[in-house]
Amino acid sequence: MHLREWGNANAPLLVMVHGWMDTSFTFQFLVDALAGEWRVVAPDLRGFGRSEWSHENTSGYWFHDYLADLDALLDEIAPQVSVNLMGHSLGGNLTTIYAGVRPERVRRLISLDGFGVPRGSPAQAPTKIAKWLDAIKAGETLRPYASLAAVAARLQKNDVYLTANRAAILAAEWADALPDGQFQLRADPAHKFPFPTVYRLDESIAIWRNIVAPVLWVGASDSQIAQWLGYGKDDPAEMGAESTHSPEFSERLAAFQSIRFNVISQASHNLHHDQPERVARLVEDFFA
Question: Can you say whether the dihedral through the CA atoms of 197, 201, 206, 207 is positive or negative?
Fold first, then answer.
C-alpha cells in the first residue's frame, strides 16, 4: 500500500481516504489550504494509484477488503489511539462504516459527499448478479488517452468547477504513460466490475448508529448526490433540527448520535478540488 504523507510528524494526525478511481494525491489542494500544523496521511486504496493491485481480482474488488486495509493501516500508524478520520465519496462511505464497526478508533469523522448510495431492493438481486457474471466473462478495460492534456480535459468534463491548472496537476498524477505514448489511469480495470450485491441501507444505518465520534457531513451544492438524496443547497442541518430536506436525507442524518451537515456552494462531487480553501476551514474547525 502506497502512503502519501504531508506535514509535521509530531503534529496531530489526520487520515484522509480517497474516492473511487482516484488516488491520495486528490487531497493535495486541500492540504495546501490547511492553516495549522497537521500530520496528514493518505493511502492509495488497493488497486488505485501507486498501491499494488489485488492478485485475486478476477471478480472485482470488495468493499470489505478496503475496511480490512484501513484497519491494518491505522494499527500501523496509530496503534491503540483514536484518530481524526476523513473520507471522500467511496472513502466517505468506507470511513463511516469503519467508525461504526471500530468506534473506539475514531476521534472525529468527516465525510465529503459520501453517505451511502441509493437504497436497493431485493427485487434487483437477479439482475445485479447477472450483470456481474456477464462483466466477468467480458472483462473490463480502461480507455487510453492521447495525452495528459486529454486526461485533464476529461477531468474538467466531469467537474465544471475544476480549473485548467488544477486539472493538469491532477492528470499528471492520475495517469501513467503507456509504451505507445498514450496515457491510462493508475487503476486496476477490475474496479469497474458491477457489484453483485444489493445495497442494504438498513445495515448501514445500524452501523452508523454505533458511531460515538462527532461527525461532520459535507455536501456539495451541484453534486449528483445532492439531487438523488434531496438535501438543500444552503442550509446547515443537525440531528433533530427542523429540516426542509427529503425523507431519504433525514433518515440518514437521524442515524448519527452527533452530526453536523454543511453544504459547499459552487462545488461538484469533488468539492475538495473545487473549493479547497472553504473545505479546509471546515476541516480544521471541526478537528480542532
Answer: positive
